Amino acid sequence: MKNKLIIFDFDGVLREASWTHMYHTYRAFIELVGKDPDLFFTDVDSFRKWCDYDWHKNEERILGGEYYPNKTLNEFFHVYHDGLVKLFPWVPESLELLSKKYRFAILSSSVSVSVKGSLGDLSRYFSCIVGAEEVIKLKPDPEGVLLILKEMDTEINDAMIIGDTHVDFFAGKRAGIKTGLVKWGMGDWEELSILGADLLFERPEELLEL
Questions:
Q1: What is the dihedral of CA 36, 42, 48, 50, to 10 degrees?
Q2: Strand runs (DSSP E) across the chain, as ranges?
């Protein structure tokens, strides 16, 4: 019986994600709520310095306490950003092969409907999908990891999180599980590679060596 669990981050690990996509999405959102994006950032580099991995904090800075019905950032991302990205082409085959040895879960800062929409039929591989709307605190807080472990009745020694940024690493570390980081996501590889993750993956095919 399979008891080992892999918790995947989604954007940047299984689904394409880039700072350019994020930049254009945030600019569109800021314009939607009637503000000038240039007051916050003017190019991708300045956006990277401005942007927090916790989109709640970004939304708070943009809206400044103002209420915009049906225009929250997570809802907008599902409509706008999801149209710019798709699953990496190697994902279906890799999930099929790895599923023979492991159970899968997803912990994403995107909403679960966005994750499931991109996965389509591949959702069947995941016993648990936790999106941003299901936790109070996003990564690097371990809340989502601990929720998945409880939901799937899994011991910390039997679980690993695989992500593409430092927030994934610290969420796993603080929950007490093994950590893995990938090179093909949004994180800075030089910074990620010295964090002390249990495993580093420079190419997607290396996942199959787990």
A1: -50
A2: 5-8, 103-107, 126-130, 159-163, 178-182, 199-201
Say how many residues make up the chain: 210
What's residue 208's pLDDT? 97
CB-based contact 77:132 (threshold 8 Å): no
pLDDT at 77: 81
Helix (H, G, I), strand (E, B) or coil at 131: coil
**How many alpha carbons lie under 13 Å from residue 164 in its C-beta half-sphere?**
22
Say how far apart CA 95 and CA 36 lie, in whole Å. Answer: 42
Nearest to 171 by CA among 194, 197, 189: 197
CATH number for the domain whose boundaries are 5-17+86-209:
3.40.50.1000
* Amino acid at the residue 81: H
Task: Give the Cα separation of 126 and 129 in Å (integer).
Answer: 7
